[in-house]
């Protein structure tokens, strides 16, 4: 899949438009926040830095799909589409923040996240041991405000009321599924929910595919006035692709090159993360050799390499590669004539990012 | 202040209407939740029990104010008012849940809260030490869903779009102020923010007066088509009353009769809660005798009584009683002819609850 120079130019323009919209949404709130003192204003300043430093995967998918679907005879709603695209990026960041609180994470992609920054800044001001409490409280509260801001953008969308309600339905469905996915993920990690493969695959779909792929695709179709058959085919294709991406993430974390993905290569094993890789390994003869090392925070590099070799030898790596191929096959099966050719190209471009992905 | 039997009958009918609306809002979500498995459904079941067991202070204030303000020539929006009143109760419960996560609380009014229930039910299923993590995650996630549900009700309100936007503005303002108040409260407790009296009073206003009094009053005025002057006078009166209630809460926790209020009489002292009482005590000669006991989780009953005696003798109790009187004076000053007599009665009835309050 090659990306033409016109695609690149289009994407740069889109990124600028999305960035401007996000700057506006966050900027006006950051200004208003100063009336509530420096600590409150700091939350918005940090959120602004983190949101504007993102890759805009979800808003770009929405806008490229909208542009590809939009028909000349439909009312032009591009500005509204940009505002919904930006709101979806705020939703993503709200989920990330609450996920970071839940997981106790202080770092994202090698940099302190909002919580890590607040912790570092609390420094010696905080009463002994309370810096983390203060910082995680900031994460919960900022997530709440971004969740509120997402809803405000949807509720104010410049659309006929019926269409606005349709987008609000989508938002509600998305939040429910993402929350259900997050709860499953935590339940798996905490040993509350049994880690069978089916549950893990359902969890991956709910936790990320819904809001990363299904929401932007359905929102784009709604805004462009596309047929419901087109919207459904896109959403189904998106869910398969989302699951493929998630499974590939798991493979990369365990078997990928840490110099490329920049993460601790054994963090999933140390955390005891219940992935499809582990679910398969549990069903093999190799599990008794793996289990003693699984979920051990103090896992050494030597032990990590030992487990990785076992996970490969027992067939778990190949099994998950097979699952990814199945999802990609199901994805391709959706790209029939129901979906206009221009939109198929957007989807294929996205799928192309899966190939040769190293991080 | 006596409550007439017609007031009591009216309130019972209002309670039923609010309860029906809340049952509908939660019931449809609880039904949909079963598709995502028992753990997800359990969140909605517990939330339903807790929300429907509430006293509906905020929705009642909104509806009584709406009924008192509504003019015959204005469009009748009573059903919409009920839906907004119920949404405000969901917002209250969302805030309570995130507050309980932040404070590590498992009990509210002598019963397990949602987090406490999830912890008890996790029991031996949870991996060692992870039951609390699972339960608090449930608190964060359920709070997120209730915050979303609140916005959905506001966004779908059956109103002209301009009025709906006005309510959405109010909601945004309320959430920002409540979050700012919560952050101040946590910053005071964690030793990040200096505990001077002014900061503590501002914190009390933001954290509870805004969403408990100002929001229902302004929403009622907006829905009833009242003049902005009336809305502002009500909101100002409500803020003063809210602060008076909060200050009285602090007095009751420390000096009240625990057989009446049902709380650990020294919990504020054990937690090191920065109240107006403590802020005043810090400025007196008695502070060196109080400080060694303040914020000590293991405080004995004897030490607690010693501190309480000091807080009374040093004038802190009387000082806060004086602050309450000031707030009530400012409250009464707002009840001028700007506010119609029927609404003044609603406000005076509410203020009457402050007198002789034991819990």
From TrEMBL, chains A, B:
> Which keywords does this Swiss-Prot/TrEMBL entry list?
Magnesium, Metal-binding, Transferase
Task: Give an example GO biological process.
Answer: isoprenoid biosynthetic process
Which GO terms fall under molecular function for this chain's record? metal ion binding; prenyltransferase activity
Please give the PROSITE patterns that the UniProt record associates with this protein: POLYPRENYL_SYNTHASE_1 (PS00723)
**SUPFAM superfamilies on file:** Terpenoid synthases (SSF48576)
**Pfam families, A to Z:** polyprenyl_synt
At the top level, the lineage of the source is Bacteria
**Would you indicate the residue range of the signal peptide?**
none
Reported cofactor(s): Mg(2+)
Listed InterPro entries: Isoprenoid_synthase_dom_sf, Polyprenyl_synt, Polyprenyl_synt_CS
Where does the sequence pass through the membrane?
Answer: none
Q: Which family does it belong to?
A: Belongs to the FPP/GGPP synthase family.
What PANTHER family does the record tag this protein with? GERANYLGERANYL PYROPHOSPHATE SYNTHASE, SHORT CHAIN ISOPRENYL DIPHOSPHATE SYNTHASE
> Can you name this protein?
Geranylgeranyl pyrophosphate synthase
Q: What is the lineage of its organism?
A: Bacteria, Bacillati, Actinomycetota, Actinomycetes, Micrococcales
């Amino acid at each position: 899949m090659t990306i033409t120079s016109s695609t690149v130019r289009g994407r740069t323009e889109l990124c600028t438009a999305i960035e401007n919209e996000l700057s506006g949404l966050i900027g006006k709130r950051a200004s208003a926040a100063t009336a509530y003192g420096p600590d409150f204003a700091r939350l918005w300043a940090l959120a602004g830095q983190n949101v504007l430093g993102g890759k805009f995967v979800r808003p770009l998918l929405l806008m490229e799909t909208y542009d590809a679907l939009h028909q000349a005879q439909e009312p032009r709603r591009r500005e509204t589409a940009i505002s919904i695209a930006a709101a979806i990026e705020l939703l993503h960041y709200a989920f990330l923040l609450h996920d970071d609180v839940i997981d106790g994470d202080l770092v994202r992609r090698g940099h302190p996240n909002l919580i890590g920054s607040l912790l570092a800044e609390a420094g010696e001001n905080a009463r002994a041991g309370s810096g983390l409490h203060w910082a995680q409280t900031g994460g919960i509260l900022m997530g709440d405000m971004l969740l509120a801001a997402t809803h405000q953008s949807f509720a104010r969308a410049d659309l006929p009321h019926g269409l606005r309600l349709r987008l609000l339905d989508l938002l509600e469905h998305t939040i429910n599924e993402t929350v259900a996915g997050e709860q499953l993920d935590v339940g798996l990690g905490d040993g509350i929910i049994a880690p069978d493969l089916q549950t893990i695959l359902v969890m991956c779909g709910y936790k990320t595919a819904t809001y990363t792929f299904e929401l932007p695709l359905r929102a784009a179709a709604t805004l462009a006035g596309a047929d419901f058959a087109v919207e459904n085919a896109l959403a189904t294709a998106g869910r398969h692709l989302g699951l493929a991406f998630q499974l590939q993430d798991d493979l990369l974390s365990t078997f990928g090159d840490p110099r490329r993905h920049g993460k601790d290569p054994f963090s999933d094993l140390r955390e005891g993360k219940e992935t499809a890789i582990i679910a398969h390994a549990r069903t093999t003869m190799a599990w008794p050799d793996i289990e003693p090392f699984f979920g051990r925070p103090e896992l050494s590099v030597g032990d990590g390499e030992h487990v990785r070799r076992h996970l490969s030898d027992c067939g778990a790596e190949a099994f998950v590669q097979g699952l990814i191929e199945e999802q990609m096959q199901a994805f391709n099966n959706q790209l029939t004539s129901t979906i206009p050719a221009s939109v198929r190209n957007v989807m294929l471009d996205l799928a192309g990012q899966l190939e040769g992905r190293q991080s």
